[in-house]
């Protein structure tokens, strides 16, 4: 045992003396009250017990013994920390100094000291409520405290103290001995888990000795650790067995280590567990602890501890302390997390700890009380934590004992709870869908017909466990957190029931369902006087099963039946495929039948049955034969019933003729109006016609005959008369039908019709079907007598031939006001009169013109009108027998015929007058037509000659040295086109010499020969084919007639290039900027400023992106560029000129000539089989792959030469920069990676190698260039094409013209060639139509991503199948559209940048439909061979401003990039110029606008794709329309990283079904959670508050001859014609 040292004794004496002096002050009545008042704050009886236990724990004690005797209390512990003493003012002060302090000594108001036991402060003074002289015995110091603060040394030790122990003796106040004994005894008997939150103490033993000699029973408090689990975030679970007190306890105690004020502290949350009932104890409210219980509570069942700052009484938390608030937040978070961990613990151990008791665990208060007082502050913090955890974690128990999220939990009635299983609820109410889900389906498509695999379900939803449901129902009105739980009502059930759901149900469940409807939900389907205003939902739900296994709604509306009880068994079996009859298995169920009866389902009437059942069977593409005869009996039966009612019969026949089909001998169903009776004579009649169709048209089935064997039951059921009448009325024909012929039908054989009429006239003509073929047979195949008689006696009389005897020809003479009408015999009469088909009595054939009535065979009926129709004369008198000449006989016969034609109606004079008029008219027509014909022929000859001369306008320009105003490339929208030259045809013809004409003719012949080669499939991909197309390209592109002055473009806006110190951006060009300008090294631009200031600056590098030209000046011109940019806003014009013309094609031609192959050499079959291909869809990191896989090979080898070829300067710069970034710096890529000739990037200037460089001689080098330079450019010592490259890498191959990419394959045959690109992206831009779709991929037939196959061999192909650019919803869209769904997405959906728009909640993919029609701003137009749509252009501009302003308000650190893409150049230019003139400035938004070609290889946060339709429509050739091209659409939709907005015509657009964007919509619909569909007028309402804002604020007109502009009357005033569009903005 240690003894007190002399030094310690001196210090103790000093302290004693000081405290004696302090006592005199303290005892002054002015101060004594402060001290006693502080002590009295410990109002809780014997609270000092907790203080002593806390001190023992901090002294590292693990055991405490407490002995209560009648006159004193003995408290001892085995702590290793003992009392000490310090000099006055030393920090920290000693324990004896502290324990004798005034009570405000060394405890600061923070966690670093307040809760440390070794620091004795006011808490220990609480013992003075029970003793006047507490005694402390330690190994060194033994002392007592007198007069509250005066320490006095004791020279003896306490008899029962052992070495190392610290012992406190508290002699009771003499006047309160009994009270002290009683209160301390009660405290010991009611101690609440004294060890629970102490770190070191494991055992407390206490006893009460009634007398000095009689020791009482020892009582034990201890805690035994039974299990320990550690979790993430410093959370730990300790399961303790707690003994002592009223009963033993078991507790799940969660702790978490947190840092506050720089120090680590532990907080605890515990849940008591009932070992008997094996459940958490949740019906007892627990207190908040700060090592020991306070008077505070969370009003819940879990116990919580944290090192709070307490009031002096240590019974309450100090209010408004930030430290306490922080602890409360941490404690609330741990409590909420503990519930989750208990849930998981129970699941793991297969004994659930969290069930309906969750309601008792979660505090029963709301956040709304936060502002009232401290306790409510506790409530708010705790309520927030549990609300958050309920929203994030499944904690609510379902009836199947599965845990659910708050949003997945449902409460319902007991009846529905018993009726609907969890699986059924998921199928009913768990569909994850969008409101516009049906948009991409036809209007008549039923929602339930959508394929089930296209639907996503939330399989986690279920009803709450009934006991939990009852508890929550009681609390929903008072605890708002439970209001988020969903209700599932009868109405929800009715709305959710679908066909697919009902198809899955067994009859037993359905009958239970019907019982439920009858007993528990009658008001939702039964119409009564009291429920007439109620929505009867189940009347329109698919709850009835039909005979053909379909589920349908009982009523089409509230009262119109949709399902019926069958009339009879036969009817139901044969007709239920289209007509809704209740399934027989339900008709056999009594409960179901009661429901049907109460639902007022009945049998149908006959007319309903016919229209809704029988005829509906014929409205499908295929007709089922089963049961049709029984149906037909019903049809005929109803006809018999109503045939005497004229009005009903008319209506009935109309609907039959429209919808009914009859069964024919070819086993097809056809409309009656196309069918004939099946008679032998009719078949013989049509045999020649059918033979003609087979011989000349390959058609075998032209005449369709009624299958009368099929309908024999009808004839048997009724009589033959009714049978015939019915089919006759339907339109089945017994004889050939009359046909209306086209105006030019077979006129060439008509000798009676002049050729001139044929070319000018409009007419209507008629003939009997098949008559021409019947009567124009060869002499060997004469019409037999039976057919002739059939035609005469049966066909012609019933054909009403008199009505069709004339053909009327209508034409108008040039400059005449009125039409002239000429009538001829119709083809019917012409053939009948001129064909030999009538038999005489001798059996010989005659025409109607050369036979007389008396000679007709006897079988011909002379009284059926054919005599008059055909003009067959009676026998004439033979005057020659009386001595008349032949001429006199002829005149007599003619007069007889005229008289016969006159009849009784015309006099002789009238007949002669008619002949004279006709003669004059005919002569006049003949004269006019002859002169007109001569003029026409002459004009055509002149036109043919001029057309031939002008066919190659560029050749003409070359001869005349006329500069062409346009380049071919500026016209690209749908295909390259050429504009006419500036000189008119008239002017050209005036100056052409004979030599020039001869040269033009020679050029035309050459062009035709070249085209023949290009079109010859046998020569495709031969050396001759390539040379021919290169020559055609040379002629078509304009290179052949460009003057020496080079290129000329005017720009209207100048800006500084933010990415280059020497850079200038030129915007708003006067024409298309050809990419060939990138190959120029000397570009002069003249800038026009006010006051006739025109500085000229030379630039050495150009880079093109649609309407922006990026230029980089020479070093010596930097100062000039700086001066220019300082006044850039004053530049009103910038004029670009190149010094020399760009002759890229001519140079490539020369390179091909050098190859020297034979004409028939196949450039396909001889491709090097070692060539490798990299198939890189959008965003798959193709460039990075090339760098890491191929360029990096140079880094790892001591030698090697690699050439990288790209289509553009931009692409070359990108791969150069990527290589320098990705190659290991240790490989020193800066010493062997070079950018050839020029770069637009300042960062790459040090890596440019010029033509005078010799780097190609290095052992290791990688040169990166544009592919156009390969054919002609290079170093002074060697051209690029002449260097022995080890590897050639070609990037973005789909954009490179075929000739450019094939040339290096043959020029450098020994090199390993790697070709990277994507055949499903943009094709090369060429001028010659014959190879505009040709590229390397088409040549080798690489057109499938998943299963590639190539010719002439299977090349090595690497597929890059993970895209890193877009969020999954966008990536999935273009993956399924172009790549068969084989592209995976690297990004997660939660990586999407948040976009907050006022009034509109965008998803990843957004379809915005806009109106297109033939009115005002909604009509498409053609401007300079490109398509524009005013409304979509204006809307796109307004929408971009809307996006930009909303993004600007977000103030994101990273700027947003918005890309606006239109397939058509003119549309993109309108939007671009609208954007350029805006007054708003956006610092957080960069907007780029252009065509799809300009965005190839680019990416943006947001893409707005504007699909304005072509003005000429898409009905004829929708697949070749530019806006429908798959590669164009693929590039457009794959540029977006986070959001894609597709602006497209709405469903009312006449060519909507031809839009390829509809296919994209169907794909997008599969992920409805990330897709929205809206229309532009909805967004107009959001943006401007008016859904027709643009319509009301836009005035549209055409350009007039003279236009004088004042201020616009509307916000937008639009004027346009075929050459330009002007928009004024107010």
- In terms of quaternary structure, the protein is single chain
- Percentage of β-strand residues: 15-25%
Number of E-state strands: 61
Please outline the major beta sheet. Answer: 15 strands, mixed
Content-based structural category = alpha/beta
Rg over C-alpha atoms, rounded to the nearest angstrom: 51 Å
What general form does the structure show?
A: flat
N-to-C span: 101 Å
Average pLDDT score: 82
Low-confidence sequence ranges: 104-110, 112-119, 368-376, 435-451, 572-576, 948-990
Provide a count of the helices.
49
Task: Summarize the amount of helix as a percent range.
Answer: 25-40%
Secondary-structure map:
Layout: H1 6-26, H2 29-40, H3 48-58, E1 63-69, E2 72-77, H4 95-99, H5 111-114, E3 135-137, E4 142-146, E5 150-153, E6 166-171, H6 177-189, E7 203-208, E8 219-230, E9 235-243, E10 249-260, E11 263-274, E12 279-280, E13 287-290, E14 292-297, E15 303-305, H7 322-348, H8 358-361, H9 374-392, E16 396-397, E17 403-404, E18 409-412, H10 414-419, H11 422-429, E19 431-432, E20 456-457, E21 462-463, H12 466-475, E22 486-488, H13 490-496, H14 499-503, H15 507-520, E23 544-545, E24 551-552, H16 569-575, H17 584-587, H18 590-598, H19 606-614, H20 628-642, H21 646-659, E25 662-663, E26 669-670, E27 675-676, H22 680-697, E28 704-705, H23 712-717, H24 720-730, E29 738-741, H25 755-760, E30 762-768, H26 771-775, H27 785-798, E31 806-811, E32 820-825, H28 827-834, E33 838-839, E34 845-846, H29 866-870, H30 886-902, H31 908-950, H32 953-960, H33 985-991, H34 994-1015, H35 1023-1037, E35 1048-1056, E36 1063-1069, E37 1083-1088, E38 1096-1105, E39 1108-1113, H36 1118-1126, E40 1133-1138, H37 1144-1155, E41 1172-1175, H38 1182-1195, E42 1200-1206, ...
Parallel strand pairs: 1-7, 13-15, 18-21, 18-22, 27-28, 41-47, 41-48, 42-45, 42-46, 43-44, 43-45, 46-47, 49-50, 51-57, 51-58, 54-55, 54-56, 56-57, 59-60
Antiparallel strand pairs: 1-2, 2-6, 3-4, 3-6, 4-5, 7-8, 8-9, 9-10, 10-11, 11-12, 11-15, 13-14, 16-17, 19-20, 23-24, 25-26, 29-30, 30-31, 31-32, 33-34, 35-36, 35-40, 36-39, 37-38, 37-40, 38-39, 52-53, 60-61
